[in-house]
Amino acid sequence: MCDLIRETHRPPAKCQGYACLPLATAQGDNPLGRFEDKLILITGAAHGQGAQEARQCIQEGAQVFLADIDDETGHRLAASLGPNAHYLHLDVAQEADWAQAMAAIARLGPLYGLVNNAAIYRPQPLLDTSPAAFDLHVQVNLRGSFLGLQYGARAMTRCGGGSIVNISSTAGLRASPGSFAYSATKWGLRGMTLSAAASLAAHGIRVNAVYPGPIDTDMLKIKSAHALAERVKRVPLARLGTCDEVAAAVLFLLSADSAYMTGAELTVDGGATL
């Protein structure tokens, strides 16, 4: 299994003149899927984007650990996805939960991929944000991703590398005055991603981030219909994104298709940040 991970991070053949040999590990060259026999952990996987990321990884041959605090929904989803899906209770802000999750994964094999997807979103402007609400965003969105990076990287270094994808937001690329605490933590996650990419490259671990814009999920539906309509007006492609579209970007960054990318910031926002 460790050999499989090292293969994923092996550089492509050298370019000869103006022609370059294609990556042998590209999706189209592997009939078994990009993640055959690889173990991937996805946090916040019981709903929305995390659930769709899990589905697509399993379709590509991965053994996926769906981690969440919604145990009933998580267990039900894992059962529906078949034998390659495994549910874990994981409160990302609790270090003990991370230790238990990594021990459970290690019993099946080495960890190849981690998606730090879990987050909370409670939109309030600065003057209406309580210290408790701010602290909760920091605990889940920042501390949770920090613990994921640390525990995930420690597991990956034992087999020569891996791939980590942090799910950020376009609120971490520009001002978002209506969601002060959420935006602050997503800006923090941006710095965390870049620092981790620089720190972990020597260990064969790539760290990249996806920045979704307005995506059609339950998290976004807490906004009023009018607020959603106004949000879509600011999107050049004139619609909400889908969980499928975010998941496709995540799988690209997890896979060998992006073997020469680390510290990348991939926006999936319909052009909203242009």
TrEMBL record:
Keywords on record: Oxidoreductase
Molecular function terms from GO: oxidoreductase activity
PROSITE patterns referenced in this protein's UniProt entry, alphabetically: ADH_SHORT (PS00061)
Coiled-coil residues: none
Pfam families (UniProt xref): adh_short_C2
Gene3D superfamilies the UniProt entry points to: NAD(P)-binding Rossmann-like Domain
InterPro entries the record matches: NAD(P)-bd_dom_sf (IPR036291), Sc_DH/Rdtase_CS (IPR020904), SDR_DHRS6-like (IPR051122), SDR_fam (IPR002347)
Family, similarity comment: Belongs to the short-chain dehydrogenases/reductases (SDR) family.
Protein name stated in the entry: 3-alpha-hydroxysteroid dehydrogenase
Organism: Bordetella genomosp. 12
